[in-house]
Amino acid sequence: MAGQSYDQLNGEIWYDGAFVPWRDAQLHVLTHALHYASAVFEGVRAYEGRIFKLEEHTARLFESARILDIAIPYTEEEINAATVAALQRNGLKDAYIRPIAWRGSEMMGVSAQDNTIHVAIAVWEWPSYFDPEQRLKGIRLDMAEWRRPDPRTAPAKAKAAGLYMICTLSKHAAEKKGYADALMLDWRGQVAEATGANVFFVKNGEIHTPAPDCFLDGITRRSVIELARARQIPVVERAIMPDEMEGFEQCFLTGTAAEVTPVAEIGPYRFEVGEITRTLMEDYDRLVRDQNA
Questions:
Q1: How do residues 252-270 score in pLDDT, each as one tens digit?
Q2: Known catalytic residues?
Q3: How far apart are CA 240 and CA 74, in angstroms?
Q4: Which terminal CB of the chain, N or C, has fewer other CB atoms within 10 Å?
Q5: Residues near 208 by Cβ (< 8 Å), separated by ≥ 6?
Q6: In sequence order, what are the beta bridge partners of 207?
Q7: What is the pLDDT of residues 150-169, one digit of tens each?
Q8: CATH pick for 132-289 out of 3.40.50.150, 3.40.50.1110, 3.30.1330.10, 3.20.10.10
Q9: What is the mean pLDDT of residues 233-241?
């Protein structure tokens, strides 16, 4: 999508119950979500015309909305149907899907009790999140300056727009240094996640991953854990300190956009693209492309 603005794509967007031309899906500059981040969203993928775990993503959208006191004026079933219709009307098979719900512009201030809740679903072609050639070799991560917040200070269990501000800052800083992404610690100094993906490590045939107590327990994360356990690979969810990375042999990221992406480097730490990582990459690819299996 390089060189083409996302507001100028062709196609249709489902917007408050009806399909509108892509360029007409607009909102006012005084929309509450723009000023106060009162928006929740999802990232969903379609493979060969089938949407991967649509119901789970929609359920999480509604849970995120509940946490932010946003009452979505549709049922989960209506959003699921609209998502399928959006994929079909845009004639896409392999695509990224972005449902989003936000507060409108009736009230401008911290309080927004009477604002209309809007919902939109956009679908577009989606290339690899990371450079395909570099992904096979393992991507390089910087260590982020910003940290995931204490759940008592932010709604960490919601996929909320405002929580991604420090992710953008961290990814920009990493890219300026030549890295693909950044690893974020949490407020305690423990390993948390990358800017838009969960992180896993491998040591002595076991997988270790941070317990998701202050960041999203990703749908892809859970899928990959199930795949690993199906192969009798032990998975340990626990607190991980940064200096432990020196002893890990492999590392990979998981996410709807990232899928399963090997990591070769995090700051001063180095990893190999080993057998467990390659196996889970292949297993995940089969899973998303054969969803009836």
A1: 999 999 999 999 999 999 9
A2: 159
A3: 40
A4: C
A5: 200, 201, 202, 235, 236, 238, 240, 248
A6: 202, 235
A7: 999 999 999 999 999 999 99
A8: 3.20.10.10
A9: 98
